[in-house]
Automatic annotation (TrEMBL):
Organism annotation: Protopterus aethiopicus
UniProt-listed Pfam families: Globin (PF00042)
Identification of the protein by name: Myoglobin
Catalytic activity from the UniProt record: 2 superoxide + 2 H(+) = H2O2 + O2; H2O2 + AH2 = A + 2 H2O; Fe(III)-heme b-[protein] + nitric oxide + H2O = Fe(II)-heme b-[protein] + nitrite + 2 H(+); Fe(II)-heme b-[protein] + nitric oxide + O2 = Fe(III)-heme b-[protein] + nitrate
Database matches in PROSITE patterns: GLOBIN
């Protein structure tokens, strides 16, 4: 699925606003994933704070954890590296492939859990920028998800 020049301009503006608050937004997306899909906590066994509070803490409390904030920033930075490549699928693949391969082979993350992450990102975009922004950015998450899946 290719994005039009207008799509890219729109989603780049959406992403710029979301990325401006990278640490809070990244932590928010991850904490929602952990609360709504508890099995995803298992991927982060080395996050001792998360492991100790995951079952009882609220999403807000989880988002405040330093390790969740740092990883949320890392996830959003990876996405930030992908957005400029939306015009060039080959360059996008080059950016995604190492990340996907590491998550598949080394970290043993189920590819379906990327869909969960993207759903939470889209919900955040919808809350902060409205339904039209959410709909527009879904094209990006669909494209990235398909490329991640292909690399698995």
């Amino acid at each position: 699925m290719a994005l039009s020049a207008e799509d890219i301009q729109t989603v780049s503006a959406i992403w710029e606003k979301i990325y401006a608050d990278v640490e809070d937004n990244g932590a928010d997306v991850l904490s929602r994933m952990f609360k709504e899909h508890h099995h995803t906590v298992n991927y982060f066994k080395n996050f001792t704070q998360l492991q100790s509070v995951a079952e009882t803490a609220s999403a807000v409390d989880i988002a405040a954890l330093a390790e969740v904030r740092a990883h949320g920033k890392k996830v959003f930075s990876a996405l930030h590296d992908m957005v400029p490549h939306l015009t060039n699928v080959d360059a996008l693949k080059e950016t995604i492939n190492p990340l996907a391969k590491k998550h598949a082979a080394e970290l043993k993350v189920d590819v379906k859990d990327f869909r969960i992450l993207f759903e939470n990102l889209l919900d955040l975009i919808g809350e902060k920028q409205g339904a039209d922004a959410k709909t527009a950015f879904k094209k990006v998450t669909d494209l990235i998800y398909e490329e991640i899946k292909a690399a698995y």
